[in-house]
């Protein structure tokens, strides 16, 4: 999306670690870093990657998420990668015959946030491109996190799974939904100005004969007023709409005047 | 992720339409379809794609999301693509100087679900790979939806943005907490009728000389449309407002005709 604001610095706040177990493609490490960066995650750990690190393809695919790539740590085993964490979740799409609680991303994020807020560290395990996580890796986790996908069409790749978890973490962490920009609505105008618009319009419509009969007028007026009121018009918008009414109402006057001015100019010219 | 359960059928439940405006790369159409399929979305509409449809690259990238690709509809303009919808959101990363409410994905999803539960149709606009949506496209929407991304590292591509919205839709839909419709409101008219009102008004204002200069016209049009769009006008209200425009616009014609008829009547009378 065209939207990067490069003027802002990044703050390395406490956040869940993302652990990729034996990632095969360097590109997927890069797109994972990039997905993380969108939502403020930065702690990326890779376990026994297929290719040596640093990895050109990963760096290229990470785009601007250098601050994540620079901090990547490589481990020989998943046990070492999660050694310092107090809470570990395993992300998996397939059902596992295991005595593990299963959470959706929202609950998973909430639980991680509680732990992190309490000064503990949390992390999420993601598996291999083709085979996901092995059972013994899932067994190391406190719980399974899975996504509410349509069973017949589950096709999340690693970066997408990381993106969803990162997004939910951001959602839950900023429960007030911190958006990069907020509502672009000017304040609603004082009721007095709205009524001014109503009266202007209704006076005009009385002159143009819009209200067919006197007894129908009150209902028609109420309905028009209700429609405009719902728009929560600002002062500027009311001013513009009154200009619209005037422009249409008085066009024939302007055109009449222009025609008369043109006539007068012609008459003056023919006299010369 | 290795997790597809092919034994399950897909049910085409009411869900938001995903509208891609002038997608450049066929691959992105395919990955969008695939992202949608994860969370049960199936109504994909593309507006004036760069390449002809069907598109080999899109089909290849869609993987198993055939049921989405098969239902893709192609439109020449965004107006046609959203004609049947009552609620339209525009997804954008950049701030727009426009009188539009801004929601995060969660609130956006909740609002779409309310409308859909009430029998109306909703849709999300996504822009071009490099340039996102044009202002006049955003102006056609009821509100903007944006993602809570780190401003310095916003790098969501189209499929990721679609994935997040699809995920939130699924999240909110499964909550079972459908916000009740505001009592007493007629359903919002399909977007096509609202656009009819816009064109009627703008054509009239072109004739009356409301738009002082050509370069100011686009912004003024967008602002007027934004004001009317917020009112969530019903079919009847749109009809009434078009009657209002006609009444004011053509009053001088009626008055002119009445004056001529009165003259003719006087002339006839004086002959008797």
UniProtKB/TrEMBL annotation, chains A, B:
Domain tRNA/rRNA methyltransferase SpoU type positions: 17-167
EC number: 2.1.1.200
Main location: cytoplasm
BP GO terms, sorted: tRNA nucleoside ribose methylation
CDD domains according to UniProt: SpoU-like_TrmJ (cd18093)
InterPro entries (UniProt xref): Alpha/beta_knot_MTases, RNA_MeTrfase_TrmJ/LasT, SpoU_MeTrfase, tRNA_m1G_MTases_N
Keyword annotations from UniProtKB, A to Z: Cytoplasm, Methyltransferase, S-adenosyl-L-methionine, Transferase, tRNA processing
Signal peptide: none
Protein localization: Cytoplasm
Single GO term (MF): tRNA (cytidine(32)-2'-O)-methyltransferase activity
PANTHER family xrefs: TRNA/RRNA METHYLTRANSFERASE, TRNA_RRNA METHYLTRANSFERASE SPOU TYPE DOMAIN-CONTAINING PROTEIN
Subunit structure: Homodimer.
Function in brief: Catalyzes the formation of 2'O-methylated cytidine (Cm32) or 2'O-methylated uridine (Um32) at position 32 in tRNA.
Protein name according to UniProt: tRNA (cytidine/uridine-2'-O-)-methyltransferase TrmJ
Gene: trmJ
């Amino acid at each position: 999306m065209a939207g990067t604001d490069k003027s802002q610095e990044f703050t390395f706040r406490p956040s869940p670690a993302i652990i990729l177990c034996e990632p095969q493609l360097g590109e997927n490490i890069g797109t994972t870093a990039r997905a993380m960066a969108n939502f403020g995650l930065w702690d990326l750990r890779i376990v026994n990657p297929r290719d040596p690190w640093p990895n050109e393809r990963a760096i290229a695919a990470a785009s601007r998420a250098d601050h994540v790539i620079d901090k990547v740590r490589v481990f020989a085993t998943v046990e070492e990668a999660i050694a310092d964490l107090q809470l570990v979740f395993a992300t998996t799409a397939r059902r596992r015959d295991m005595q593990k609680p299963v959470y959706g991303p929202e609950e998973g994020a909430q639980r991680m946030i509680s732990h992190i807020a309490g000064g503990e560290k949390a992390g999420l395990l993601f598996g291999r491109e083709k085979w996901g996580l092995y059972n013994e890796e899932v067994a190391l986790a406190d719980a399974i996190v899975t996504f509410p996908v349509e069973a017949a069409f589950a096709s999340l790749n690693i970066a997408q799974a990381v993106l969803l978890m990162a997004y939910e973490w951001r959602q839950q962490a900023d429960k007030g939904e911190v958006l990069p920009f907020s509502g672009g609505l000017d304040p609603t105008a004082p009721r007095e100005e709205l009524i001014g618009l109503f009266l202007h319009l209704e006076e005009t419509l009385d002159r143009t004969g819009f209200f067919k009969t006197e007894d129908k007028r009150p209902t028609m007026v109420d309905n028009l007023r209700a429609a405009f009121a719902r728009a929560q018009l600002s002062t500027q918008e009311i001013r513009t709409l009154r200009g619209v009414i005037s422009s249409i109402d008085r066009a024939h006057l302007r055109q009449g005047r222009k025609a008369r001015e043109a006539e007068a100019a012609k008459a003056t010219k023919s006299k010369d």
